[in-house]
Design goal:
This protein has helices at 14-27, 39-46, 50-62, 81-104, 108-125, 130-146, 151-171, 178-193, 197-210, 215-224, 228-240, 246-264, and strands at residues 36-37, 66-69, 73-76. By secondary structure, it is mostly helical.
């Protein structure tokens, strides 16, 4: 009997499903940066127990998406310009090391896994769905880091991955040129598969530092996408090193989410 290629059902506890749902709400801007969320409200809206919600929120806290403030409750993180700079510089360092390690130890199993992940990204890019493309993009980078077979390195990567996703989704920082993104990924993968250690590390680092991953490039990409205020704030932070603008940067992220959500809502233009 031929294979039907039906996807496997993934068994997941309620806590995991709750964490996925809340995480997606944060990423999509349904729950805004800096918003205060309560276990009672989430439990009621999701028809789950408070204990289940609490476990889910603690998981998101490990990912850096929520914080628990004593005597206040849970709050969604609000990224500052300095936060963005820290996230991207850490990510570039992790991915540089991972790329070098995988290139050094490349074999058929690693080559197959990384090639398949890149092919999936290229295929999905044809859909034009930026969120799905972003998921495939992160899946590729997660695959590269995983293939280093370095548990602590992977743990460090996963600790910042969701925060980087949030920053990218809030600014759409690399989706203005998908073809350039694919070209960069292809070069990185090619260097890794060829076992070119130095080239793989350099390309991985350069990619992270050129695609909106420092205050300077974040500002440039934000400016290109029309967020001139956010661009100006990032340039000020870069030039002065001052954290005075951080509270203003937080505000622009929240506004960006609100504007994006308004654009998603159907409009009756004849009214």
């Amino acid at each position: 009997m031929p294979m039907l290629k039906i996807p496997k059902v993934i068994k997941q506890k309620a806590e995991g499903q709750a964490a996925d749902a809340i995480r997606e709400a944060i990423m999509d801007g349904v729950i805004l940066p800096g918003a205060r969320i309560t276990e009672v409200q989430l439990a009621a809206e999701m028809s789950l127990s408070r204990a289940t919600i609490r476990t889910a929120l603690h998981q998101l806290q490990k990912e850096g998406l929520t914080t628990l403030i004593p005597y206040t409750g849970w709050t969604v993180i609000s990224l500052t310009a300095k936060d963005a700079w820290e996230l991207y510089t850490i990510r570039s360092s992790i991915e540089r090391l991972a790329a070098r390690m995988v290139a050094y130890s490349i074999n058929e199993a690693k080559r197959s896994a990384i090639s398949a992940s890149l092919e999936r990204l290229i295929s999905i890019s044809k859909t034009g769905n930026t969120q799905v493309i972003a998921d495939a993009y992160f899946a590729l980078h997660n695959t590269i880091v995983s293939q280093a077979h370095h548990g602590r390195l992977l743990s460090q990567y996963e600790s910042v991955e969701q925060q980087v996703r949030l920053c990218i989704r809030s600014t759409s920082s690399f989706m203005h040129d998908v073809s350039a993104l694919l070209e960069q990924q292809s070069f990185i993968v090619e260097a890794i598969l060829n076992g070119d250690i130095d080239e793989a590390g350099n390309l991985a680092e350069t990619h992270n530092l050129s695609e909106g991953n420092t205050p300077n490039t974040l500002a440039a990409s934000s400016y290109a996408n029309g967020t001139r205020l956010q661009a100006w704030l990032a340039y000020v932070w870069l030039a002065t090193g001052s954290e005075v603008v951080d509270w203003m940067f937080k505000g622009t992220l929240a506004v960006r989410f609100r504007l994006r959500n308004c654009m998603k809502r159907p409009r009756n233009w004849t009214a």
